[in-house]
Design goal:
Elements lengths: L3 H21 L46 H6 L14 H16 L5 H24 L4 H21 L4 H24 L6 H17 L3 H22 L12 H14 L3 H5 L1
Helix pairs in contact: 1-3, 1-4, 3-4, 3-9, 4-5, 4-9, 5-6, 5-7, 6-7, 7-9, 8-9
The protein binds zinc ion.
Zinc ion (ZN) binds next to loops.
Length: 271
């Protein structure tokens, strides 16, 4: 049973992360799908991804490469060109808040910086997953800033928590291991795996490795299992066919969060 301080902390962090989700989620409508391949020139290769732009007037929204989010746009919530209001999809604050509360209630005795690191992942994973589900892209502008922020927070937690340096080393092993694994999958069969999935894999490997060294393996297994179950479900209800491209990123995130919240099931299975 959670204690009263734990419940209060869960409520506080849920509200904080939901609030951050209301602001940060404003970037979600700025991302648009890849344009279709040029039928006149099928060998031209994939077109470049469209820049973040207003969903109403399509004016590009300035986003510094070194900033995790376009701060001025996020605070204003309006397109700088046409002043149209750009709102976060409701799923972003709701899921970010629920995940943050779940991290506190299932986390046992995480240190404050570790909690901050996992709450950051809750918000960032929701942003990435919702964008990928909507436009089948994991934009570099969102994927790459996740790494330095997570490394600073988990690095700080490792330095200030006794015994946590081992967790950080395991996390770095997870980061490298999952990046290599997804890169190999993509290299062997590029149609089955997006390049964005490869770029995001290391971030999840970092967190899963921090949990236990076996968690990146179990989390990846759960991602494939979840994608198979939901893919078959969509085919069964007629929402997809065997040829439909279903983005894999949300399943990688679901697999990772099942591991983080419920623990690694593999010792139960393999003894
Ligand atoms: Zn606009």
């Amino acid at each position: 049973m959670p204690t009263i301080p734990q419940l209060l902390l869960a409520a506080l962090l849920a509200l904080t992360c939901a609030g951050i989700g209301v602001l940060a989620g404003r970037v979600v409508p700025l991302f648009h799908p890849y344009p279709p391949d040029d039928p006149e020139n099928p060998d031209a290769g994939p077109p470049p991804p469209p820049p973040p732009s207003c969903p109403e007037c399509r004016a590009e929204v300035a986003w510094s490469r070194w900033a995790p989010l376009p701060a001025r746009f996020v605070l204003a919530g309006r397109c700088p060109a046409c002043a149209a209001a750009v709102r976060a999809p409701a799923s972003v604050p709701v899921l970010a808040g629920v995940l943050a509360a779940a991290v506190v209630l299932t986390g046992g005795d995480r240190s404050p910086l570790e909690l901050a690191a996992f709450c950051f992942l809750a918000v960032w994973a929701v942003l990435l997953g919702v964008v990928d589900a909507r436009v089948k892209r994991l934009p570099n502008l969102l994927v790459f800033p996740g790494y330095p922020i997570a490394l600073v927070l988990l690095g700080g937690a490792a330095l200030t928590t006794p015994g946590a340096t081992d967790s950080l080393v395991d996390g770095l092993i997870g980061l490298v291991g999952l990046s290599v694994f997804y890169f190999v999958l993509w290299f062997i069969y590029p149609a089955g795996m997006g390049w964005g999935d490869v770029k995001m894999a290391g971030l999840l490997g970092l967190y899963l490795g921090w949990e236990t060294l076996g968690a990146p393996v179990s989390g990846t297994f759960l991602a494939f299992l979840a994608s198979a179950v939901i893919g078959l479900g969509l085919i069964a209800v007629g929402k997809a066919t065997r040829k439909s491209a279903i983005p894999f990123g949300p399943f990688m995130l679901i697999g990772a969060f099942i591991l983080i919240l419920a623990g690694d099931p593999s010792p139960l299975v393999f003894g």
